[in-house]
């Protein structure tokens, strides 16, 4: 066990539903070691084909390229309402630098991401 101040926080993923939308809340750091955990959680959620998936990353301290790949794969596998991402400042930067914000639907809060359902319906 590593007991260093620089040791990454373990990745925690929680899944809950709000109406027809599944909210995946992510805490910690998403790197090469933890990205498979997020991938597994998203794969499980997408298997049930929800109307929309909100990935709440507001408590993510680091988002590496492996995490970006997981988000891209999930967005390609999502239908209808799509994948909605709520990044922390630390997660927003790599999403913007890689232009993934052009492929993902990015929101400032979970409330905003959920409000999309109230203002528009998928066609």
UniProtKB/TrEMBL annotation:
Query: Which SUPFAM superfamilies does the annotation name?
Result: SpoIIaa-like
Family annotation (Pfam families): STAS
- Report the residue ranges that make up the STAS domain in this protein: 11-117
> Which residue spans adopt a coiled-coil conformation according to this UniProt entry?
none
Q: Which family does it belong to?
A: Belongs to the anti-sigma-factor antagonist family.
Concerning NCBIfam families, the annotation shows: ant_ant_sig
Q: What is this protein called?
A: Anti-sigma factor antagonist
């Amino acid at each position: 066990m590593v007991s260093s101040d620089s040791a990454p926080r373990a990745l925690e993923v929680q899944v809950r539903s709000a109406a027809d939308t599944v909210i995946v809340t992510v805490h910690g750091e998403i790197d090469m070691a933890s990205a498979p955990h997020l991938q597994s959680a998203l794969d499980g959620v997408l298997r049930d084909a929800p109307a929309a998936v909100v990935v709440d990353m507001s408590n993510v301290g680091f988002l590496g390229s492996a995490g970006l790949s997981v988000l891209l794969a999930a967005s390609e596998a999502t239908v209808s309402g799509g994948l909605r991402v709520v990044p922390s400042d630390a997660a927003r930067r790599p999403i913007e630098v890689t232009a993934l914000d052009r492929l993902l639907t990015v929101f400032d809060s979970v409330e905003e991401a959920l409000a999309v359902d109230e203002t528009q319906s998928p066609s």
